[in-house]
Every structure is written in structure tokens, then in C-alpha cells.
Records
---
Amino acid sequence: MIRGVALFALAVFMLLPLAQAIILSFTATLPKGGVAVGTVGLMNYANVLADPDLRASIVNSAIVVLLNVSFCIAVALPAAYALARYRFVGDRHFLLLILVFRVTPPIVLSLPIFILFARIGLVDSPVGIALVHCLFNLPVAIWILESFIRAVPREFDETALLDGHSGVSFFLRHLVPAIAPGIGVAAFFCFIFSWVEVVFARILTVTAGKPITMAINAMFGFQTDIGMVMAMTCLSLLPGVAMIWFVRNHIARGFALRV
Amino acid sequence: MRRYDSRAWVLLLPALGILAVVGAMPLLAVLNYGFHDIFSLQNVHWVGLQWFGDILRSDRFLASLGRSFLFSALALAVQVPLGIAVAKVLLTCGRWAVWWLMLCALPLVVPWNMIPILWLGLIDRETGLLGSALTAVNFDYKFTALHTWALILVMDTWHWLGLVVVLAYAGLSSIPPAYRQAAAIDGASRWALFRFIELPRIAGALSIVFLLRFVDSFMIYTEAFAINAGGPGDATRFLSIELGEEIKGFSYGQAAARATLYFLIVLSVVWAFVVVTRRREGEP
């Protein structure tokens, strides 16, 4: 009984703000194109999809996230393997170092990152944002992948190497399939940072390459069409919901602090 | 057992390369700017420790520091126990648990700048679902400091509870049933079960939750600023909001000194945390 009430309260708490957004996204909130305020329909979604800036921002965000996830996984995989399988001079210092970078407040770094990236031409480019997000996602990816690799018995590596696989082909043909769920979970955590992040997205996009968060910001003005903002928000949730769905059975492996 | 082999460093090099470019170099640059007065990138004067002295002596800084620590303490005190409690309820849900986990994870994929907009929409007097109920109890986040704090705290809890629940659930569900059965045979109380069996198993996951939630709440910016821009008065002026003002005002030298201070504060808390964690792990 108490459990039922608790679960019900949880569901209401989690869904209420989203319900509000969904309701508004189907309601006309500004008189536009002969549609009266309060009309219910799909016009907000139609307006979002008809706007080239908003369409471009969805593509930009997708590129940022894809680049970021590929950078992080490609670089974190060897590092996580080293940490899971070997002891070496300074391994704990490395773990401490990535923890320090993960907890550095983004706003602290925003100014020098902008100056540095302006100098090497990475402002207004999805590559720049994807690289900066690595600072926060790489540590998490290393922690997650390390715990998954650790769960694979060492004999697994040795058998593959005895079978004549070289380092690279062992990684790609044996290790990656064995820890595929871990890669999914790591990708999920990279995604939930990169897709929704605001501080770096703002400073690194001056004129072009704006991701969804900045496109939504740009929709606020003298007369804000809040229904359209909510429609854009609801659309931006869809890839996240898909990500949650893909990793649902593995997300509960989680990750732990390693220092 | 892990083998000792220092050639493993080679595998860390790509990660170190990226971290050096996007982490170490900018950090050193911030440190350097903090000792200069910067009119433009070509017009820079050494001012030594002047900015640091100015900031540390100002009452506003100390007040903001206190507010940020208070907010972090409240956020952790609410979210961690609540997250563990939810995870414990979900453990009894069997195969439905995964659906509840997905529900809790939903707010994590909402764009950060939309989170305050969603909540402001929800409590809007005219169109919000909670608008009329909150008007009836005289809820006024614009002019009553306590209400602003409550709103930001509830919003932050909504946003991040999923992370606590997912990681706590991960730890709790990995406990073999035999442990709980043994505890039941010994007649352990529910508190003893939690304290001596469950808590040690989720300590690792909770440490990371603690650290992540500490830094993110300590440096809350996007969400807090959009609710009331630090108001009413200065009631929700957190550290990050002061830094944001300086960056917007182009006082880069001062902003860099401030950023360095914030980094050092976060670093000392994390360092204390790591020392405690290592000591606990070192115990037999």
C-alpha cells in the first residue's frame, strides 16, 4: 500500500513538468498563420520543422554527439583496458587526474577554451564542442568501460592472443563484442552530457554550428512562441528517450568511483 | 590479479593527449590570466595577487560562498537519501523496475536550459498545471526568498534524482540474495541490513554520486539564473552567477582569478573526499 503510494508519487513528480511541456507543444500560444490562440493541433511541430535554423540545429547536435561519443569510446577503450588489466607507475595518479578534470566546473574553463579554440579555428564548429565535452565524458567513459572489462576474465584475452590475434584485431573482434553493453552505457552517459550541455555550446558557437540548446535560447525574444519552444523541446527529447530504451537492461550496472 | 607492466602507459596516451589540450592547457591559462589585468589580448598588465585579495576580502564573495555550500548541502541531503529510498522500492518491483528506472532517467535528457522553463511553465499562474494550487497557498518565487530556494531545490531534485536512483539501484541489485537471507536468519533489523550489508556494497557508486552532485550543485548556473537571476535581492546569488556577471562584464582578469579560486575550492573538497575514500578502502 505504502509502496503503491510512493510509486504513484514518483511517477507524478517525474511526469508533471513533461506533461506540461507536451500539452503546451500541442497548443497554439501565439496567433500565427490564421490559427487562433488555444487551438489544439500539430502546428507547433510543423513550424519547428519548417524552420531551417531549427532543423540545422538538430543536425548540429547530432554531429556533436556522434563525434563526442566516437572520440570518447575510441580513446577510453585502450585506457580502460590498461587500467583494468595492468598495474603500473602512476595508475592511481591517472585516476585522480581524470577525476579532477571531471569535477572542474565548466564555467571556470569557458574563457581560455574560447581563446584557444578561436586561435586554432574550432569556434563555430561541432568538432570544437565535441572535443571540449570529452573533458567531462572521457573520465566517465573510462570508469564505465573499466568496470565492464574487469568483469571479463583475463583468460579471455590470453585465448584470443594465443589464437594469433594481434592487439588491434583482438580489441575490435573480441573485446568490443564482449563488452558491447558497457560501450552502450558509456555512450549513454556521453550522450546525456553532450546533447543537453549549455555553457560550452554557448561560448563556442558565435555565428554558426548552433546545437539545439542554443537554438532553443534563440527562440526566446520579444514575443516568445512558447508552444513552439515546447514542441522543439519535445522533439529534442526523442533521441534521449531512444538512448534510454537501448541501454535499459544494462544501465543498472552503473559505475563506481575508482581512486 | 593485475600484472605489473609499465608499458600500459602507451594505452593511456591518446586519453592524456585530449585531456592536455582541453583540460590542462586551459587550466594553466586561467591560472595565468588571474594574475593579470586584461584590457584586450594585446594589452595585458601584471597585477600579482591583487584580484585574489579583492575577491577574498569582499563580503559578497563570502556570502555567495555560503549560499553555494548551503545549496549543495541541501541538494545532497535531499537527493541522496531520496534516491536510495526510491532504489530500494524499485528493488521490490521485479521486472517492472526497468520501466521505473527509465522514467527516473527521463529528466537527464532534457536540455539544461529548458529545465527552468519547464518548471516555470508548470507553476505559471494562468496556464500551469500547478498554477492555481500554488496561488492558493501564496507561493511566490519572484519575491519570497524561501520559495525561490524551494523551487530551485525541487527542480534540481527532479533533474538529478534519476542519476542517484540508477547508480544506487545498480549497487543494490548486485547484492547476492544469500546475503539478505543470512541477515534474515540472524534476525538483523532493517537498519542493520542497510548499514552493514547494503551500504558497503553501494559505497563506490554513492561516492561518485556525491562528487558529481556536489560539483554540479555547487556550480549551478543555467538553471538557477533562469529562475530568478539571483534574486529576490541576492537570495539566490550563487558563486557561478557572480562569475557569469564578470565574464559578461568583460573583466577577464578578475573572472580568471575568481575561476581559479572556485577550482581550488572544488579541488580541496574532492581531495578530502578521496583521502577519506582511500583510507576506508585501506581498512581490512
---
Amino acid sequence: MKSRLVVTPIQCTGCRTCELACAFAHSVDGKPGKSRIYPLPGGMKDLYTPVVCLQCDDPACMKSCLVDALSLNEETGAIDLNEEKCVQCQACVAACPFGCSLHDQKNANVVKCDLCGGDPVCAFFCPTKALEFKPVTPTKRKRAV
Amino acid sequence: MRVEKTSQLAKLQKTFLEKMNKHDRTVLICCGPGCLANGAQKISDEFHKVLKKKKIKGFSIEALKETGCHGFCEQGPLVIIEPDGIFYTRVKVKDVEEIIDTSIKKKEVVERLLYTDQATDKTYETYSEIPFYKLQHRVALRNIGKIRQCDIEEYIAVGGYQGMAKALTKMKPMEVIDEVTTSGLRGRGGGGFPAGRKWATCAKIDDEPRYVICNGDEGDPGAFMDRAIMEGDPHSVLEGMIIAAYAVGAQDGYIYVREEYPLAVVNIQKAIEQATELGLLGENILGTGFNLNLHVSRGGGAFVCGESSALMRSVAGEVGEPRAKYIRSVQKGVFDKPTVLNNVESYANVPVIIEKGGKWFATLGTPKSTGTKAFSLVGKVRNTGLIEVPMGTTLRQIIYDIGGGVIDNKPLKAVQTGGPSGGCLPEDKLDLSVDFDTLTKAGSMMGSGGMIVMDERTCVVDVAKYFLKFLNDESCGKCVPCREGLYQLHALAVAISEGRATEEDLDKMEKLSDNIVIGSLCGLGKSGPNPFLSTIQYFRDEYLAHIKDKKCPAGVCRELITYKVDAEKCDGCMACIAACAQKCITGKKGEPHVINQERCDKCGACYAVCNKRDAIEVA
Amino acid sequence: MVTLTVNGRVVQAQEGEMLLEVIRREGIDIPALCHHEAVEPFGACRLCMVEITKEAWDGWTNHVTSCLYPVEQDLIVSTHTPKVNELRKSVLDLQLARCPNSPEIRKLAAEYGVNETSFESKPDADNCILCGLCTRICDKMGFNAISTVGRGHGKEIAPPMHEAPPDCVGCLSCALNCPTNVIEYSDVNGKRTIWGKQFELIKCSECGKTTITREFAQALSDRKGIPIEYFEKCDHCHRKELSLTMGQVAGWSKEVQS
């Protein structure tokens, strides 16, 4: 059974530890990089929810990439962006309906969640278990296209 | 009518041969590139016109033939009366009626049109006695000039398509490859790669479909061997390609003809139609079930498309840029499929090899360079034209025995061989044998067969400059060493020719040349510096004269020469004054003229006009 | 699996890999200006050249572009021999002659000891090194809007007829991957200009931030079937929208799996 990043919004306190961990885990030249996960207000009072790539079954990002820089990593289950193949056209940034392909302005790079290669630091550091990386049977699936 | 059996082909050969030989006399009008340029078509038209008017008993208009290049271009337009081989030179339209009255109506000879050897003053009635012809051995050019141009009946009459019939009906593909390997045939385009080995490698590749391609790009300035074959005997190329396709298992082929050869395109297309109609090309060739479709592919005017990988891209409709050949084109060639690419002359040799055997072919030439080679002999040599000699013939034999020596018996300064990528060899190297390896060891190369003879009024710096510019202009521009390196090499050569260079510049050029040779992507770049490297090897003094003394010993480089009238020799004829475009020569009739050095642009027109009296010097 | 030696180290590689991949994997840095993973290797800049040999070759060596040479069993590769360094130096010297005003070329040339070019150069030359990356990437994206034009020293990169290219969608892939930043473009007042052609930049329907050109979005939608509505918002607003959706869902169930 494959592990998946499970988000439980009701547990999220908006502490932003996940955002910090992600930025440091993807540091560039020793400086923190761009986080791929953002806790955002959920629309109700005191309700935060972490917004992160849903690693869709039928990803809009992969569809939109004209140089095949995005592909499914069979081991981790993530849609990986091959940064060396990427030509920075921003097609995936514009196409993802969830805004989870991001343009790192500082480093002139396009980035997205890669589940840290199979052990996501956001889940590791989340103090309230709003983020968990665990094996689950898929129930409700969020589809992209 | 389709030929479905070899016995049918043999019968046809007999029929066509009888048809060819039934004439008492035949008139062959050479319509090779040189003679055509000299007005051979008008001469042929005149023959037709006069003979239509004057019906001569026993002579049918069918006995009038336009042929491919007979070879002796210097003496063209040529008209030959067979079967005696009477050889008329420098024929003009107004001579036609006289030839008809003298040699066709009667069996006599028009003396003034016969060939006189300038070196020996001997006159020859027939061409076979002339040293220019006697010392040749025509294999690839065997039919050219002898049969009607682009006529399948005459081609079959002299034995054409017999080689193909033998291969397709009596031999297995591997046996065909073995025969070609035994012959030792090496690529006649200049690369010298063993054809048998190429075909064998391609045949083993596990990929389909396969292709055969004929390289008819012939981009070397001054070379016209392939042109003569494509225009004069296109069937020999088709036959060779059919045999090759059978050997490697190809069903499609392309004949790539350069844009600048429209007649070759027409004749090859005609030949394809003629052969297809007879069932000797296309579906079910000779009833054997073997299919081959040949297409003509035209170039776009780029020398670089003579390079095999660029050519294949051009055939596929892409920009003609070569690719690195770490994966050979026999494995991934045109359309990324296994491809055999050979030169026009290589294919023209194949039918003979199959017919007479590879062993026979290997008896000609030298052990490592078997067979014969066609050359275009041009420049300051008496007998310019198209020749074919066994490999191993020396430069001296070609230039002096066949070529008749340097014009005006001047000393030979250098002979340039191998086209722009080749090199210049000096007089003391004339006893080198012409083959794939000997000239390369000496710093030049045989190349595709261009041979330019130079006398003391050729400046090697100027020659190097010319070829470097040509190669840089023709470079595809993809890789830095060739595109930028040859540009800078040419710029430095210009500086030398203008007296602006230093000795350090020579060192810079040698180092840069070395890096261009190693760093370039394709053969054009890798051999690009050769015009400089070969001339600096043997003519370093001439370079130094330009650099240290600021003089051009050959009297060519404009910045370094002056034209002066020798007042003692000048007889005041005013010819130079008339010729001068700058109007910088003054003088009255009968009095010595004077050239105004400030306005003179060194064009040399005065020198050319005055040459008879020798009163103008260049220094 | 293929075993070969790189700078004395014995390494393993997959069949079909090019030498450059192996060399980079070993952490060895060699320049390769015309190389980009998105497109086929080209072999134009010649800077990635290395020396190769084999024991069976009896001392004969060859110099090849590592981007295009497939790995071979028992190959011995040297990336920084004196001859290879001299070759790179010569190439950079020539490039500097072509592009004397390019800071990137100047920097790279200085690394190989070339501070000033030893050849003739034009003071007002542009910085295009003709690596071909812009055209190759544009072709890979399927737009084929620009190409190399001409040959020899006069070769250049241009749209057809040197006019505004009809096929360009303004994705900027050419400009953003140019090693010498030669291709000019500007985004002003919601309009993008590149190659003499003007494009409309989509403005996010929520916040007004500009994203990609409408032409590029339309091409992606037409070719790949992505609903054109997806492109009407920017990524920031899309994330906000997702968080609101998830918030609503959170009100009904405990977890949402990704």
C-alpha cells in the first residue's frame, strides 16, 4: 500500500512550521528556498488549512508541460519536476488549478512539491498531525482535469 | 515492354547493338559540360539542319549522336567520326557543312580541324593515338563520349545492366558484397572508405527500412567528374545503385544532385523513367521480385551538403547541418535508418566490378588503392579536361605525359589537388603516386579528383586566402572552430596578403589551425585549414616574403605590387591606355606611356593587354 | 551496465548514456554552453570536448564532444588534459572575438586564461554565440517560431523573413534559456513584446496580477485539452481558492487526502 500525504485541516493551527521546514529542506546555495506548502485561512474563523500539491492522478501540470519535464515518480507517488529539463515557461504555474506549481522569483526557478523523495519534512515536523505521511487506501480523490 | 528474364536482356543487347552498328559512319558531337559551354548545342543543331536539307545516301540522321564528355575539354567543341575515330577540334558552326561534305559524303578528312600537339608539333588524325587519350584507362567513364547521352538502348547495347542481371539472378546479396570487398573499391568521393565494408556493416544492422543514397553534390570548385557521369552516362549510376540496394536490402534510394546541375537532374530523371519502363527499375526488377524505387533529390546550393550527414538531413527536408558521427550513418542515416551513401563515381564502377569480377578490378591501380580514378585536370596545363587513370599514376605522368606540361613551357610551381580541403604540392613532389594515401602523407590529398596546375604567376597566399574564404562561406556555421576559426584564419591570410602581418601571426595561424582540425564537428571544418597548412609547409618563404619584405613574388597580391611601364620596351601603341578602367595611364601615340601609381588599382588589365610586347612589369 | 574510467575513477553507467551525464554525475565540472536537458544534444559549442582512449587502442587518442558520445565498455576518459584545456581556450578565444561585450563569455574565458581575445573582433557585436538553444527549445515546445538563418559566419537567429513570427506565443522559453541573455523582451502595462510581436498578458480575475500570455494559454488549451478557465486566475489566488474549498470540506469531514 502506497503512502500518501494526508491533510487534516481541522488540526491545522496555522503555525507555519511546515512552510519553514519545506523552505529549509529545499535550500539553494545555503539560503532557504521557496516553500511548496502554505497554510492559508480556510474561510472560517480560526480555521487554517495547509495547501500543498495534491499529486493528482491526471495532473494539469504534466499535461501542460511541452518538454516533458514533469513525470510521475513511481516510488514516491509524487509528480516530480526535472529542474534541468524545465525551460521556465510557467505553463504549469498557470495551468495548475490549485496553484501548486510555483515560480521561485529569487532563484529564477519553477518548483513544486516532490514529497521530499519519500519522507516529507512538513509531515515530520507538523506538531498537530494536520499533515501525515502514511499508507492509506484512496477514498475521496481530488481530481485536477 | 518489360524485360522479365536475363535471356530477354541478352536478346535486347544483340538487337540494340545491331541497331547501333548498322551505320556506316556515325557522327558523335561531344555535349559534355565544357563543349556545351563552348556552343556544342548550336553545332549539333546545325548538323541536324544541314543533314535534313542535304539527304546523303547511306547516312541516316540516326547516326548523329550527342554524347557526354569525351574528355579533351581544352580542344572543344569536339566532333568525332566513327568508326575511324577521326577527331575534329575547336569546331565552329561554320565548319559543319564542310565536315559533312568532306567526312560524311566522302571519306576524307578536314585537315585544319585536326588536333596538333603544341608541345611536339605533331598532328593526329584519330584520337586514340593522342597521348592525352592513349595513357588513360577509362572504367567509370567507359561509355561517356562513346554512346548517345542518356539512351538506355545504347547503354544496353554496350553491355549495360548485365552486371545487375548477374547480381540479381546469379548471386546472393552477401556474395555481391564479397565481390565488392575483393575489388578493394574505396569511396571515390574522396573519403576512401572501403565500399564493401560499408555495405557489409549496413547489411548486418537490425533495422528497417534501409536506403541507398548517391552523393551527386560535387561541390569542389573546378571538379566536374561526377557531372560528366550523371549527364553522360546516368544509367551506370542507376545500375550501380540497384546492385548496392540488392546487396544491403534497400527498397528506396535517393540521388542527391546539386542545385547547380540542372541537366544532370533532367538526365537522371529521364534515365529512371527509361529503366522503369523496361522493368529494369521499380517493381519486380528483371522479374526477380526485387523492388527498388529511386528518387532525385535536389540540393539548395550548399557545399556543406556534400558531407554525408548534412546531405541526409537535406534529403529529409531539414537544414543541411552535419552531425557528429559517433553513431555511423550505416546504422542511423537518412530518416534515422540504416543508409549506404556512396559517390557517383563509386556507383559507376560497381557494374563493371560485378561483371568482370572484383579480382579483375584489384589488378588495376595499387594494392591499397585499387582501380582507376577520374580527374578534372585544369589550370595552367596545356591539355585541360576530364581524364581517368589507374591509381598509382604519378603526378608527373598526369601533368606532363597526359596534360602536355605547363603552358608556354613555364616551370611548374605547384599542383593543387583534392579541392578546397586538399593542398598544394611543389615541383619536387611530382613523382608521388596519386592514390588515397600517398598524397595525404605529403600534406595534400587526392580528394574527389580535382587537380589544378599552377605556374609562377600564382601566389600561394592568394590561393590559401581564396580557399579559406570559400570554406568559411560554405561552413554550415554550427560549430565554433569552423565558423569562427576559419573566419579568423581568413582574416589573418588577408592581413598577410596586404602586408600587415607579422611572423607571430604565422605562429598564431598554425596553432589555430591545429585546434580547428581537432575541434571541428565535421570533415569541412577538420580539413578547413588545409589550404593554409599545406602551403605553409612547402612555401614558407613565399609567406615570409609577404610578411618581412612586404612583397608578393608572384605579382598577385594587389597591396604589394606595382605595375610599371618599361620605357625602353614600350612602343606607345596605347593599348593599355584603352584598357585602363581607372584612366591612369598617360602618353601619346608612339611615346612611352606612364602609369600614375596613385590612381592605379592594380587590376592588371594593362599587363594582360601588353603581354605581347612585354613592356609592362609587375613587381 | 557499462564500466568506464573518468579522470582515473572507475564508474558505472547505463547503456545509451552520454559521457557528459556520467561526467556531471561524478561532480566534474566542464562547460557545455549549447547543452540543455530539454532538447537533444547539439555538439555546437565544442566546450564539452574530452579526450578518450582505450587500452586496446595502443596509445591512439580521440577528442570527442561528451554530450554526444555514448558510453562504451572500458573507455578511458580525461576531461582536463593539456590538449583539451588548450582546445577549450581556443574556442573561448574565438567566442570572445565574436562576442567581446558578453559578461558571461568573458567570465568563462577568463577561467581558461583568456582575458582578451587574440583575434579581430567588432566592437559593436551582439552577444549571440549561436548555441541554437532558443530555436531548439522553441521547436521542442512545438511552436517552431524562430530558426537559424543563413550559414557560415553570417549565420544568425531570426524569425521567418526577419518579421514578427506568426507562430510565436510569447512563452519566453527562448529568452530565459539563452546563455548570454541576448533575446530582449519587455512586459509593460499588461502587454509583452518579444521578436517584434506584441502579446496580451492574462490578468488574474481576482487580483489582477499578470501570468502568461493569452496566446500561450490558448495554445496549451487547444493542444492539451486543459480548460481555458484554469488560466484565468494566478497561482496565488488558486491556492486561496483551494484553501477555501478545503475549509468547506473540513466542515463536513475530518480529513482530505492528497
